[in-house]
Amino acid sequence: MSVQPGNYRVQNVAFGTYMDMFAGSSAWGTRITGWAGGNNLHQLWQFEPVGDNTWKILNAASGTYVLAPNHIINEGVVGGTPPDVFTFIDSDGSYQIKLADESLVLYLASGESDTQITLQAADGGDNNQFCKLCYDITTASPHNVAFAIVRNIATSTHLTAFVTESKKNNVHVLQADLADHVTLKDAAARAAESTGGSLNVLIHSAARIEVPTMFKRVTDYEDDKKLEEDFLQYYKVNTVGVVHSINAFLPLLRKGTTRKIVILSSHVGERNITWDLRIDVQAAFGASKAATHMVLTKYAVLLESEGFTAVGLLPGIVDVSATAVDARKSYLLPYWL
Ligand SMILES: NC(=O)c1ccc[n+]([C@@H]2O[C@H](COP(=O)([O-])OP(=O)(O)OC[C@H]3O[C@@H](n4cnc5c(N)ncnc54)[C@H](OP(=O)(O)O)[C@@H]3O)[C@@H](O)[C@H]2O)c1
């Protein structure tokens, strides 16, 4: 499998310990060691592409790169700049991390925490020379845990089937309603119990999408009362619900390693797109999503100094009717095609 740019924890196959920038120090020459797994930034590494399968490896805590002061056998690797450039050599999902254009690879001699990683000649033995790359923010690794939060577990039949069939046992389903902040706090508390109190990424997808009113213009409602109710309900779930969701999980995210908040947004909440494409339908829904953009920007400003990234993601037009609980949603797609 080819390596993709991104954030990883790098685990030694032989000992199960993780590549660790000692104490997260940014001082040049800080030793890089194998260390027992910890939910911290100094065990998080960003792979930055240089060229064709050549990479710089940046530590998230220190902001410095992996390098070996001298390219000789037994040399300890340290943090600093300029970075060395590495190539990942795949071996059934594990990798040798090799100095580009040279034969020496990263090597861990012992499973004792604080054992410095060194350069060695590659001998093909996966007991000590291979490192396994674990995606940090996906469920690709059984070391990661994902929580799927739905408002009704009983009717979430596709999700239940996915979890039941999954062999990884690392996806947990929790129940909460965006219109009820108490249930969100409760879900966050249950997630915290499983993770020891932390969460790396919050991806908020849920939104009120009511088939009968979804495509109404501001002048389409039967009466003013129905208009007001619909606008307020969209706002309650899609805007205030997002705020409750982020607030509930914020304490966990603050204890996580990546501090990312992603909200599924919508093009009908974008003023430029609405004007350029002359979209007059989806008035209440669009207004609630536009308000969500503002709320998200407020979080981005509020949490910037803590190293958070808070973004809205526009997924484009996606046919989700195959897994819809409300079969009428399949009729929404033709509006956009
Ligand atoms: N599909 C697209 O083309 C498209 C385009 C642009 C943006 N998006 C965005 O992508 C996200 C997902 O959309 P989708 O297409 O997957 O829509 P969807 O199939 O209607 O899914 C929306 C989900 O939100 C849940 N939900 C609604 N009200 C809730 C509440 N009060 N509390 C908790 N959950 C609630 C629904 O739960 P139930 O299953 O219980 O009804 C449903 O699972 C939305 O934010 C949407 O705006 C989608």
UniProtKB/TrEMBL annotation:
CDD domains: beta-trefoil_Ricin_RSA. Residues 4-67 form the Ricin B lectin domain. Signal peptide: none annotated. InterPro entries: Fungal_SecMetab_SDRs (IPR051468), NAD(P)-bd_dom_sf (IPR036291), Ricin_B-like_lectins (IPR035992), Ricin_B_lectin (IPR000772), SDR_fam (IPR002347). Gene3D superfamilies: 2.80.10.50, NAD(P)-binding Rossmann-like Domain. GO terms for cellular component: cytoplasm. Pfam families: adh_short, RicinB_lectin_2. GO terms for molecular function: oxidoreductase activity. Belongs to the short-chain dehydrogenases/reductases (SDR) family. PANTHER family: CHAIN DEHYDROGENASE (ATSC), PUTATIVE (AFU_ORTHOLOGUE AFUA_3G00180)-RELATED, SHORT-CHAIN DEHYDROGENASE/REDUCTASE. This is Carbohydrate-binding module family 13 protein. It comes from Postia placenta MAD-698-R-SB12.
